[in-house]
Automatic annotation (TrEMBL):
Transmembrane segments: 20-40, 60-85
Biological source species: Tunturiibacter lichenicola
Main location: membrane
Protein name: TraD/TraG TraM recognition site domain-containing protein
Domain TraD/TraG TraM recognition site: from-to ranges: 489-621
Stored InterPro entries: P-loop_NTPase, T4SS-coupling_protein, TraG-D_C
Subcellular location: Cell membrane
Length: 678
């Protein structure tokens, strides 16, 4: 029958300090026994021994006194051993102690992230002295990656608590509150982010890109090099539709997109995905643009007449060759002296003679590059080859053309970026550049569920991620030039990361390059994915391991992927373990077989047993451990920014769970996250 917990609390110190208690009690008993039963020195026999053999007499006296102390020690040791064996219950050691106070992130003085509670390092049992596993600021900059199967608790146990703790830090300080970007594919994470920001008083710092919002985002409107933009588009196409064995096609449509981007930038200084689509899909549009832009580099003088004057004398002016130019908002024709005299003598219209403003030398160089590629390379392709190259692009670019909502949000007119009113989008406003958003403490969320359009969601999320990463990396020279300034940390959070990851040796914007440099510009990357296999399936390049090693803190939840379990077990390392083996052998002499029983027997026999100890390396966490983890139960390999922390069981703190309730208490009362309002 199990004794009460109160009695067990009394018994526990007796067992833990039984050696000290045995020594103390035996010393006390020895003193009492020595005073009650001292050695009888008047005994004739003892007196005779002392006179004849004094050394033997002294040995007898010291032995008697020693027994007065040692005998009680043996008795008390036996008593405490019986208590330990028959009364003390080890289950008491498994009772979870109270967690230390959880500091509200709104009042923290130092930036940190509490991942969860730690009890015992290598066994999933409660501890009387649990503690929080906290990653300090310097460790956050080295990145956090979470792996877990569907329903394992990645979002509730890591993503939501991370957003709550990080975005609540210094929420009332305009200079120190954190900025960030949140990418998702489910459609509910941004809604929960808004509630978190409202909880910490930062609801006005939130900007959301969605099909129903008023924010507009053009992924091509930045200062990124035309080749880098074209390569990004090609990489996304490859990640969505796969990579062929022949690299010619990918290289060709990368070149095509690159030079179309250059051409539009020379002409307008602005372009969208729709502009690229309409340029490459039309058979003659690209050549028309070449001729149109080429005329702008001419030094020919022009005569310009406004609309009112032209309409008044249209009969005379139309045969001369005046054409309407949108960019100039004038009717233009090449200047000749005879034409100028004709207008002076036969019309009263006001006109202007001017020479087109020359382009910069850099723009001329770019145009010459485009011109050389077009006339010396593209024009020599057979029509069926051109069709194949164009088809590889338009399948992707048509995502922005066919849906009016998508076109309005992600292909806004140039007027919006110039701050002019736009009749086609009266409520639209453009998303500021990411460098401004980061330095002003803004938080951007992409609310574009993958169920609406998987390819488009992946495309927009990847473009936003690349824009953000580029803005973060550009902080490095600025921070180096102004060491006296305070630069706020910024947070990159991505759930279901396999949908947005880009990596590889031939990708100049691979995520592993960004994560390896994220510490210096003070970026905190936190990503969650289902498994290592899902990352390998999503990425066309063999750079997954390079990507994972750039994220120093790993959180492994329950998984059904053998490759993830194997990777986690290897990452946790091995330790020296002692293996005990027994060998039993039997030998007989003069053996014979019984006539009745048919069994062997002998008159002499011997049995020997041997016990061997052997040291060998065993994983700290076997692969099976990661299959058997429960929800919100994880194995964490953490890094604090200076040294790696030992792998340990860690119990995540779901966002709905009270901070003072341990994971084991949750298990006892049966907390159901589906019944708790998040």
């Amino acid at each position: 029958m199990r004794l009460s917990a109160t009695f067990q609390q009394i018994v526990r110190p007796l067992v833990e300090y039984r050696i000290l208690l045995s020594l103390g009690l035996s010393a006390a008993c020895g003193i009492v026994l020595n005073s009650l039963y001292p050695i009888n020195q008047v005994n004739p026999l003892l007196r005779l021994i002392s006179l004849e053999r004094s050394s033997i007499y002294l040995d007898l006296v010291w032995s008697y006194n020693l027994f007065l102390y040692s005998t009680p020690f043996l008795v008390f040791s036996m008593m405490f051993s019986l208590i330990y064996v028959h009364i003390y219950r080890k289950e008491l050691e498994h009772a979870a102690g109270s967690l230390p106070p959880f500091v509200d992130p709104r009042i923290r003085q130092e930036l940190s992230l509490v991942l969860g509670e730690v009890h015992r390092q290598l066994v999933p049992r409660p501890s009387p002295t649990p503690r929080w596993l906290s990653i300090p600021e310097r460790g956050l900059y080295t990145g956090i990656a979470s792996f877990g199967s569907i329903g394992s608790g990645k979002t509730l146990g890591l993503i939501l608590p991370a957003m709550r703790q990080l975005f609540a830090y210094r929420a009332d300080d305009p200079e120190r509150k954190l900025s960030g970007i949140v990418l998702e594919v489910k459609g509910d994470l941004c809604r929960q982010l808004q509630r978190i920001l409202m909880w910490c008083g930062r609801e006005t710092d939130y900007d959301e890109i969605s099909l129903d919002g008023d924010l507009r985002y053009n992924p091509l409107n930045n200062t990124l090099d035309a080749y880098a933009q074209a390569f990004n588009i090609a990489s996304i196409i490859t990640s969505i539709w796969g990579k062929g064995k022949e690299p010619f096609w990918q290289q060709s449509y990368t070149d095509l997109v690159r030079y179309v981007i250059l051409l539009h930038r020379i002409r307008d200084g602005y372009l969208t995905m729709v502009d690229i689509f309409r340029t490459v899909i039309s058979a003659g549009r690209l050549e028309e643009l070449m001729i149109e832009v080429g005329t702008r580099f001419s030094t020919t003088s022009y005569i310009g007449i406004d609309t009112e004057a032209y309409l008044e004398h249209e009969g005379l002016l139309s045969p001369v060759g005046f054409e309407w130019r949108e960019d100039e908002e004038l009717y233009l024709v090449a200047w000749t002296e005879a034409l100028e005299q004709l207008l002076i003598q036969h019309t009263s219209a006001e006109f202007a003679v001017y020479t087109r403003r020359p382009y910069q030398a850099e723009q001329r160089d770019h145009f010459e590059s485009v011109q050389y590629w077009y006339w010396e390379h593209w024009k020599f392709f057979r029509s069926e080859v051109k069709t194949s190259i164009v088809q590889g692009i338009v399948v992707f670019l048509s995502l922005f053309e066919t849906d009016a909502k998508v076109r309005r949000v992600f292909c806004p007119p140039k007027e919006l970026y110039e701050g002019k009113p736009c009749s086609s989008d009266l409520k639209g406003r453009v998303l500021p550049p990411f460098d401004e958003l980061i330095e002003s403490g803004r938080i951007v969320g992409l609310n574009f569920p993958v169920a609406l359009n998987p390819a488009l969601a992946k495309t927009i999320g990847t473009f936003m991620k690349i824009d953000y990463q580029r803005a973060v990396q550009l902080r490095i020279p600025i921070m180096d030039a102004h060491p006296e300034r305070h630069f706020r940390p910024t947070v990159f959070i991505c759930d279901e990361y396999q949908n947005f990851a880009t990596v590889g040796g031939d990708n100049p914007t691979g995520d592993e390059r960004f994560y390896s440099m994220s510490r210096q510009p003070k970026c905190i990357p936190i990503v969650a994915t289902q498994s290592v296999s899902s990352l390998k399936e999503a990425l066309p390049n063999e750079g997954v391991m390079t990507l994972l090693q750039a994220l120093r803190t790993k959180v492994f939840l329950t998984t059904t992927d053998p490759e993830t379990a194997r990777y986690a077990s290897e990452l946790c390392g091995k330790a020296d373990r002692t293996r005990i083996s027994y060998t039993v052998s039997e030998s007989n002499t003069n053996a014979n077989v019984g006539l009745l029983s048919g069994r062997t027997s002998s008159s002499k026999g011997s049995v020997s047993a041997s016990k061997q100890y052997q040291k060998h390396k065993e994983p700290l966490f076997e692969e099976k451990v990661f299959f058997d983890l429960k929800n919100a139960q994880s194995v964490v390999v953490a890094f604090d920014g200076i040294s790696p922390l030992p792998p340990t069981y860690c119990y995540l703190k779901p966002d709905f769970l009270p901070s003072n309730m341990s994971w084991f208490e949750q298990q006892q009362i049966g907390f159901d996250p589906d019944k708790i309002s998040t």
